[in-house]
Amino acid sequence: MSEAEPRQAGSRPNDPAIAFVDCDGAQAASTQSQARRREVVVAGRRVKTVDVHAHCAVPQAMALLERRADRPALLFAETEERIRAMDEQGIDVEALSINPYWYAAERDLAAEIIRIQNERLAEFCAANGDRFVAFATVALQHPDLAAEQLEHAVRRLGLRGAAVGGSVEGEELANPRFHPFWAKAEELGALIFMHPMGTRELASRLTGSGGLDNAIGNPLETTIALSHLIFEGTLDRFPGLKLCAAHGGGYLPSYAGRSDAIVEAFPERKRVPLKKRPTEYLRQLYFDSLVFTGEGLRHLIAETAAGQIMLGTDYPYPWTTTAVDHILNTPGLTDAERVAILGGTASSLLGIDPDF
User: Fold this and answer.
1) Residues in Cβ contact with 153 at an 8 Å cutoff, skipping those fewer than 6 apart
2) Nearest to 183 by CA among 232, 218, 126, 144
3) How far is CA 260 from CA 95, 119, 281, 296, 308, in A?
4) So what's the pLDDT on residue 160?
5) All residues at 6 or more sequence positions from 169 whose CB lies less than 8 Å from its CB, including other chains
6) CATH architecture of 41-350
7) What is the pLDDT of residue 70?
8) Which residues pair with 194 in a beta bridge?
9) How many degrees, rounded to 5, is the angle at CA 132 between CA 343 and CA 110?
10) What does the buried/exposed string (b/e) look like for 30-63 if buried means 16 or more CB atoms within 10 Å of the residue's CB?
11) Parallel, antiparallel, or unpaired for β 50-55 and 45-46?
12) CA atoms of 302 and 243, how far apart (whole Å)
């Protein structure tokens, strides 16, 4: 199963306002059991948990590009089912995001897609404010428009930042033409959640067994995107930018030392002057906790900082239903670090009340 754009299907006039989907756009299975709300406790105190990585879709907007999630379920009708799943997993608040499928759309069509999506997200979160917040969608292929959409979403609609892909139709996010968007995000202090869309240029090498387009392709795109943002000087130009990379930042934190080594051994390859060593930029980025093992999370924290990591479930993928326990059971963390990862940092960045 790929975590790329939603699958294409015909539209129907009665498509729901918002649907919970997986990264392929497939409807999440309903939770039939009545789950008691799990209360997450650290050092004897209940902690509010915030999931920064949860997917949904707006079929009304998808229909404009003749796309539709498989078996879409009306979010408002399915809210109780989703909340039961959250309660069972120990998730108090989800930050909803939509993977970009509209980056090839021309300006007017893209504007309408974004308008519909952001308004539906805002309406849903307003009706369920104690359990959900949302990242805005933006037409990043039109950077000036994306900047306007971000400002409107944050200032007028109450959305908490924006979700973007790891590239835009083959263009790197470090391309100077995207500077107006990064400048607006920095100005607003808005958190930008970056989710990869896969490495299509390597499609022929990622076929076969193992789902390599997902297993390798997604973290690889994140690695490439972050590396360009560092080496092209984007993070120097916008030092106040708040950017969270999905899936633990891909491979970059695991092998970041090579980025330092390349500029030391081959200084001529660093074509843009940087204000600090490449690895130091990891500490001005944020990452979700989707690295699957305690050792992976421990290493991610060692390369960045506990305050840079936030809980992510990748809902509704079935592989992260134990995301809370992943954090609670990772050895070597202090209570304060666990609280920060579980929800403290996300609450601060997303404007969520950390208390109940």
Assistant:
1) 118, 122, 136, 138, 159, 162
2) 144
3) 34, 43, 11, 21, 20
4) 97
5) 103, 104, 141
6) Alpha-Beta Barrel (3.20)
7) 53
8) 164, 245
9) 115
10) ebeeeeeeeebebeeeebbbbbbbbbbbbbbbbb
11) unpaired
12) 19
The domain locations on the chain are 41-350
The answer to whether 26 and 71 have CB atoms below 8 angstroms apart is: yes
- Asked if 13 contacts 69 with a C-beta cutoff of 8 angstroms, the reply is no
End-to-end CA, the chain = 37
Residue that wins the pLDDT comparison between 235 and 14? 235
Q: Quick: pLDDT tens for 274-309.
A: 999 999 999 999 999 999 999 999 999 999 999 999
Percentage, residues of the chain above pLDDT 70: 88
- Strand order across the 93-97 sheet: 50-55, 93-97, 132-134
Across the chain, which distance is largest between two alpha carbons, in Å? Answer: 61
Q: Say yes or no to pLDDT of 130 above 70.
A: yes
What is the phi/psi pair of residue 93, to 5°?
-135, 135
Identify whether the C-beta of residue 309 lies closer than 8 Å to the C-beta of residue 297: yes
Band of the pLDDT at 220, cuts 50, 70, 90? Answer: very high
Cα–Cα distances (Å) from 192 to 119, 166, 241, in that order, read 18, 11, 8
The residue-averaged pLDDT of 62-84 equals 72
> What predicted TM-score, i.e. pTM, was given to this entire model?
0.91
Contacts of 250 (CB under 8 A, 6+ apart): 196, 218, 219, 220, 221, 222, 223, 226
Name beta bridge partners: 287.
Answer: 245, 309
Which residues are 315's β-sheet partners?
Answer: 54
Check if the beta carbon of residue 222 is closer than 8 Å to that of residue 194. Answer: yes
Treating both helix axes as pointing N-terminal to C-terminal, what angle do 75-89 and 107-127 enclose, rounded to 10 degrees?
60
> In the beta sheet, which residues pair with residue 76?
none
Beta strand 286-288 with 309-310 is: parallel
Task: Name the pairing type of β-strands 41-42 and 45-46.
Answer: antiparallel
Burial of 334 (0-12, 13-18, 19+ CB in 10 A): exposed
Tell me the C-alpha distance between 246 and 25, whole Å: 17
Q: What is the pLDDT of residue 316?
A: 80
Residue 3: the pLDDT is 41
